[in-house]
Write a structure and sequence with these properties.
- Helix content is 33%, strand content 21%.
- It has 284 residues and is of the alpha/beta class.
- A six-stranded mixed sheet has the order 6-7-8-3-9-10, sandwiched between helices. Strands 2-1-4-5 form a four-stranded antiparallel sheet, covered by helices on one side.
- Helix 3 packs across helix 4 (112-125), helix 3 runs parallel beside helix 5 and helix 4 (112-125) packs across helix 5 (141-153).
- The two termini are 35 Å apart.
- The structure holds adenosine-5'-diphosphate.
- Adenosine-5'-diphosphate (ADP) is lined by residues 11, 14, 16, 18, 36, 38-44, 243.
């Protein structure tokens, strides 16, 4: 499903290889943990999958299509295949739980009837049907992350990309979130790529673990017990602040703009893109 072929990435103005000759295959339906210290290249790895960044050399193939060659106007359509979950939830504070999830469907121009049905289903999958009318600040961290997960799922993404999704929630809730990801993976066949620092969490699941160091993949193991050295790496990573993936848009308007980038058309300079701002839907 995803192939990295000799992928290297050097950012403009930098001489550091954020990714250094990465070769990798992730199959449809796999569940993969990505670990590595701060600055190792994890965010760059995710950004190239999301097509936020293009490799300096090498190639990334997604379902047989080269991401390098993809025309900018096709990128939002490609991104519909991806559901993204962030450490800091990125929920729109002025919208209810229902509307936060529905927004992701509006952005892609879904019909109202499909929106009602699928939002209800996505919320039931994450166990939050009863909280549909609540606002994010009325929910616990774990619940907010489940809303974000429902939002990532609602458009039936083929791949969930979770960037430290348990970093801001307590350990018990963290397990709930990974359990949910596991269920989604097993029941729906959704591919899961999850970046995490939490070694104990990795150990309690029998999943593939890929460790990145200085832009290289230094280990890629089917089972966490053989991922030697992972603990030190993860401890080191915890000691560092998480990198600023996506420049942490925490304002509602920025979150909306980010989500619109997954819509019908690339955003224009004024940020409106293909999204109908005058939607007559009362839910939004
Ligand atoms: P991680 O997510 O593992 O913390 P990153 O992918 O953010 O690592 O960073 C990998 C390397 O690339 C680091 O050396 C970092 O400083 C560098 N880097 C990341 N983003 C940029 C950027 N936009 N411009 C220049 N260098 C960058």
């Amino acid at each position: 499903m995803i192939d990295f072929i000799n992928v290297s990435k050097i950012y403009k103005g930098s001489d550091v290889k954020a990714l250094d000759d990465v070769n990798l295959h992730i199959d449809k339906g796999e569940f993969v943990f990505i670990v590595g210290a701060s600055g190792a290249g994890k965010s760059t790895f995710l950004k190239t999958i999301i097509r936020e960044e293009v490799p300096t050399s090498g190639e990334i193939i997604f379902d047989g299509e080269s991401l390098n060659m993809m025309k900018p106007r096709k990128v939002p359509f490609y991104r519909r295949k991806l559901g993204i979950v962030f450490q800091d939830f990125r929920l729109i504070q002025t919208k209810t739980v229902y509307d936060n999830v529905a927004f992701a469907m509006h952005v892609i121009g879904a019909k109202q009837k499909d929106i009602s049905r699928r939002v209800a289903y996505a919320l039931s999958l994450v166990g939050l049907s009863a909280k549909a009318k609540s606002y994010p600040n009325q929910l616990s961290g774990g619940e907010q992350q489940r809303v974000a997960l429902a939002r990532a799922l609602v458009n039936e993404a083929d791949v969930i990309i979770a960037d430290e999704p348990t970093g801001n929630i307590d350990p018990e809730m963290s397990k709930d979130i990974v359990d949910l990801l596991e269920q989604i993976n097993l029941n729906r066949g959704t591919t899961i790529i999850m970046v995490t620092h939490e070694v104990d969490l990795i150990r309690s699941y029998n999943k593939r673990v890929i460790e990145i160091k200085n832009g290289h993949i230094v280990s890629d193991t089917a089972h966490p017990e053989v991922a030697e050295g992972t603990e030190e790496v993860a401890q080191e990573a915890v000691a560092n602040t998480p990198s600023g993936y996506y420049h942490a848009p925490t304002e509602d308007a920025e979150i909306e703009k980010f989500l619109m980038n997954y819509g019908n058309e690339p955003l224009t300079d004024d940020g409106v893109g293909g999204f109908d701002m005058d939607s007559s839907d009362e839910n939004l």
